[in-house]
Design goal:
The protein is about 30% helix and about 35% strand. The strands form two sheets. A seven-stranded antiparallel β-sheet has the order 1-8-9-2-7-5-4. Strands 3-6 form a two-stranded antiparallel sheet. About 20% of the residues are buried.
């Protein structure tokens, strides 16, 4: 009979799915952790990493927070007739006072909400959504320049990241 240590070795963890475009295209003002309402085998697709957050954004509608444009691939081993639409809007779960504060922040010009990452926490799927403001072209070039300078300094000092 396998011991406790053997069971821990076999346990696999789902990957953290990140929206790499978000940090490149936006300044992150404030981030929140929200639960997400999924249907059926969507959780299995998330665990397999079959999610695209690239075109996703969040909006407040009727005092509820919704995620639009997030593509979750239908689970290939599930019943094809019961699969929900892969790009349907999904409800994000936050406390009422957090949503109310978001409404005030989103009313500012140029501020929007995008998901930064999707991950598992204690067996539940969580989405890190952030209030963001768009970067201009020169801001993006400046960020790339700083990243290259940090890389050169690390290389010169012999550090690895």
């Amino acid at each position: 009979m396998p011991g406790k240590a053997d069971r821990k070795k076999r346990r696999t963890y789902a990957p953290t799915l990140t929206n790499r475009k978000a940090r490149h295209n936006y300044f992150v003002l404030e981030a929140f952790e929200a639960g997400i309402e999924l249907k059926g085998a969507e959780v299995k697709s998330v665990r397999d990493g079959e999610v695209s957050l690239d075109e996703a954004f969040a909006r407040v509608h009727d005092h509820e927070l919704w995620l639009y444009g997030c593509h979750i691939k239908p689970y290939e081993y599930g019943d094809a007739r019961r699969q929900p639409d892969p790009t349907r809007r999904r409800k994000l779960l936050l406390h009422r006072r957090q949503i109310n504060s978001l409404v005030g922040s989103l009313s500012q010009k140029g501020v929007t909400m995008v998901p930064l990452s999707m991950y598992f926490k204690r067996g539940r799927v969580k989405v890190e959504v952030a209030l963001v403001r768009g970067k201009q072209r020169y801001d993006k070039r400046q960020a790339i320049r700083q990243k290259e300078q940090r890389r050169e300094i690390d290389r010169a000092l012999g550090r690895r990241r």
